[in-house]
UniProtKB/TrEMBL annotation:
Keyword DNA damage listed: no
Gene name in the database record: LOC102974614
GO BP: any one term: mRNA processing
Listed name of the protein: RNA-binding protein 4 isoform X2
Organism phylogeny: Eukaryota, Metazoa, Chordata, Craniata, Vertebrata
Domain of life: Eukaryota
A GO-annotated cellular component: nucleolus
C-alpha cells in the first residue's frame, strides 16, 4: 500500500470524485479529504506512480491539484503553527519559505493558517526567530510551536517532568500555560505552548 498526498483541492471536490479519479490507476483502499487537501491509499507502488504521473497538476474544477507520495513525519520532527497566511499562498510557496531554515517534512495549509513540520528542532527555532511577525505575501504571519498535545516517547522527559532536547549546544524546554496563570515550568500534562532556549554558558551548575 502507498499513501498519496493530494494538495490544493478545490472546495467542490468530493471524496467519491477523488476516489474515482485514482481508481483509474489502481485499487483505492482509502480516501480522505481534509479541507483543501487529502490522502489516498492506493494498493501498490506501480499504481501510485501512474497516479502521480497522470494526476499531478491535473485540473479539477478549474484548479490544478498536487499529487505526491506522502512523507511520513519523523518521530523527532517539530510542528509549527503558522497563522495569518495570505489566501493566495500555496503549500509550495510556504514550504520554500521555511526551507530557508532547514528541511521541511510536511506543510499543510488550512484556510488562513498552516502547520509546518520541520525535521530538526534547532531549525524550527531559527524559523520562529526569523519569520514570526514578519510580512509574507502582504500578510504579517505569526509563527510559533504548535499547540497540539505532545505524544511522549522513551527518553523525552527528565526528572523534573519537563521535555528537553539538547541540540547543537542549545537546551530546549517545554512550558505549560495553565488557565488564568502566567507561563511557568510544569511537568508536561497539557498544551505545548512555549519554548525556552538557553545557551550552555547560561546554564546553571
Amino acid at each position: 500500500m502507498v499513501k498519496l498526498f493530494i494538495g490544493n483541492l478545490p472546495r467542490e471536490a468530493t471524496e467519491q470524485e477523488i476516489r474515482s479519479l485514482f481508481e483509474q490507476y489502481g485499487k483505492v483502499l482509502e480516501c480522505d479529504i481534509i479541507k483543501n487537501y487529502g490522502f489516498v491509499h492506493i494498493e501498490d507502488k506501480t499504481a501510485a506512480e501512474d497516479a502521480i504521473r497522470n494526476l499531478h497538476h491535473y485540473k479539477l474544477h478549474g484548479v490544478n491539484i498536487n499529487v505526491e507520495a506522502s512523507k511520513n513525519k519523523s518521530k523527532t520532527s517539530t510542528k509549527l503553527h503558522v497563522g495569518n497566511i495570505s489566501p493566495t499562498c500555496t503549500n509550495k510557496e510556504l514550504r520554500a519559505k521555511f526551507e530557508e531554515y532547514g528541511p521541511v517534512i510536511e506543510c499543510d495549509i488550512v484556510k488562513d493558517y498552516a502547520f509546518v513540520h520541520m525535521e530538526r528542532a534547532e531549525d524550527a527555532v531559527e524559523a520562529i526567530r526569523g519569520l514570526d511577525n514578519t510580512e509574507f505575501q502582504g500578510k504579517r504571519m505569526h509563527v510559533q510551536l504548535s499547540t497540539s498535545r505532545l505524544r511522549t516517547a522513551p527518553g523525552m522527559g527528565d526528572q523534573s517532568g519537563c521535555y528537553r532536547w539538547d541540540v547543537c549546544g542549545l537546551k530546549f524546554r517545554a512550558a505549560v500555560v495553565h488557565e488564568n496563570t502566567h507561563p511557568s515550568w510544569y511537568p508536561i500534562s497539557g498544551t505545548f505552548s512555549a519554548l525556552c532556549v538557553q545557551s550552555p554558558r547560561n546554564r546553571g551548575p
